[in-house]
Amino acid sequence: MTLAEIREADAPPEVAAIYGHLRAGYGLPLVNLIWRHFATLPGILPWAWESVAPALPLLPAATKRLQTALEPLPSLPLSAEAAALARLYNRGNLSNLIVLTALLRGKQGQGSATSGALPTMLPAPAPLPRLDALSDKARREVLALAGLHGHADGVIPTLYLHLAQWPALLAPLYMSLSPLMATGRIARLREMAVAAANHEAEALRPYLAAVPAPPNRDMAEAALRPFVTRVIPEMVPIGLILGGQTP
Question: Which residue, 60, 43, 52, is CA-closest to 21?
């Protein structure tokens, strides 16, 4: 069983509108998994978006500092296409780790709303494959990559699924990441990413909007906590290892 989500192609108008705001706000031609999951929880997607939107102009500088905190990193070049895709996910993962950590902690202080130009939209990748549309071999390899993380709630990092458009890359990626996981290298980088994100999130908290929370906010927090403590901070170093600098 995989994590519930509403894909962009399947989004009803009210969800699609917020997805459009997310793409413009992040300068990303896709919507990351945590937001697609929020869309399945009544009232959570608009609350989360409206809460974080004023802080988005602060993210480019914050994500650059977070990335610097993890350097130097090993390099794992698979292909130019895979690296370009990883760099796209790097922008989303770095940004989400910071701003969603701030969201989980809640607004603090009386900071003013921020302003600034929207980031340049990155080129759109090929459509995200569906797990059940992959070949049996590719599906097993995507699930094996997700299994390296040991998530018990059906989370399949979308980067792995998106890389399945080049099925020949999946097995080499598994062979390369396995020792980094087994030796604790990714776990150490995860903790470094969490610490750096906590620092950046604390500075962002005054700029969140004070939006009334829906009654089921505890459901959102329960879903969000593993994403900001493990799922995203593990994919941040992996994405940087695959793709280098984030654009």
Answer: 52
